[in-house]
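Mods, move this if it's the wrong board.
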Amino acid sequence: MADNIDIRELNERIEKESAFLDLINLEMKKVIIGQKNMIDRLIIGLLSNGHVLLEGVPGLAKTLAIKSLAQTIKASFSRIQFTPDLLPADLIGTMIYSQKKEEFLVKKGPVFAHFILADEINRAPAKVQSALLEAMQERQVTIGDETHKIEEPFLVLATENPLEQEGTYPLPEAQVDRFMLKVIINYPEKDEEKAIIRQNVSQKFPHTNPVVSVDEILKARMVVRDIYLDEKIENYITDIVFATRYPVSYNLNQYENMISYGASPRASINLALAAKAYAFLKRRGYVIPEDVRAIAHDVMRHRIGLTYEAEAENITSEEIINEILNVIEVP
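Not the wrong board. Structure tokens:
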């Protein structure tokens, strides 16, 4: 157990270190109307060193949000439009022959940036997706026989459109699992939509300014790791994850034939990290069960495999997660 002095000290430290969040939110509000949930999830990914997959119909400001967040931080940004004819070399780079030097030189690709926007990631074939996979997981890229480190912070923010499935390549389960969060984006409210219209038909479209340095982000990541996670919360997280693997043990017999595979250990790690980052957003030095519940859907929804029976009965991973959160006792 951490004593009260530590927690008080930590709270004060977080209050000081999290001041930049207000600056980021102020800048983002200039450009993005509403979508607070999406912006919070992007910041959680950034603070936890995790990649984010955004899913939503076209026109919901997915690309704009990612671009604007990169602009608020003094960091490099690459946008890669994924298409069926994209090659791994278009992503990671290649060796080119220099006649002047009479040797092969490395020409680095757009993946060498702090922020990568992988637009419509499911439009590119598996070999391109797997090239991105090494960069995401290992934080390095191999070109020829040389391995090149990618600078931190390194954040892949991918978007996919759930509507058009023709001519797309569904992401392999192994790759989807490497995304810390999968965020579903919904339509704006009526008032927000009116404000969006006004903003887009006015003479000048606002833009964000860089307000935070890369060093501040890396420092904040260290603070997020220091946030206190009680053993009771650890048990709560493992129960949530284990309930997806062994539903019968948690009196969820109705889902025994609905789940083809449960969440991986990455789900437990990411749930703990994301809950810490969520507590940081709330300026708190310790994690409470509400932090875990708030982020559980985004961490888990892409990590539960559904059987044909589940699909036939229109049972979704969202419903399963809801039921798990209702059944498992909150500490």
